[in-house]
Amino acid sequence: MEKTRSLIEGEGKMAKQYETFVRDSAQILSGRVVAIALRDLTPGKKKYRGINVRAVVSRPPKKGEPTLWIRSVVGVKEPQPASVRIVEELPEALMAIPYTDFFEVLKKAEQR
Questions:
Q1: Threshold 0.85, pTM exceeds
Q2: Which of 31, 52, 98, 108 is the most buried (most CB within 10 A)?
Q3: CB neighbours of 81 closer than 8 A, spacing ≥ 6?
């Protein structure tokens, strides 16, 4: 039954789902464009593919947008999903000094 609910009407495909890991979910739920790293959860060859993006995250989820599951940095999943509208895909590798804070690098990518 859960699988049936996540089908896109008329297409017979699974709806896109992503997850992201954040320090503070309030920062990405601000309604503005933020830089985040997404992991694709949609079944298929690209499952678990990671992408860096600039996106707008909404809660409650908006109809027609992919579902986003938000997790803390230690992996605790928030009970309510959000939706994500990808504005721009960022490069696979972001310019930074090795061993620097990944979240700080994303914040700098957000400001470009």
A1: no
A2: 52
A3: 59, 61, 67, 68, 69
Question: Helix, strand, or coil here: 5?
Answer: helix
Indicate the domain borders of the chain.
16-110
**C-beta neighbour count of 91 within 10 angstroms:** 9
Q: Are strands 67-72 and 17-22 parallel, antiparallel or unpaired?
A: parallel
Pick from 45-49, 59-63, 66-70, 76-80: least confident: 45-49
Per the structure block, which two tokens stand in for 90? 């960022």
Phi and psi at residue 4, in whole multiples of 5°?
Answer: -65, -40
CA distance 13 to 85: 19
Residue 84 token pair: 């994500």
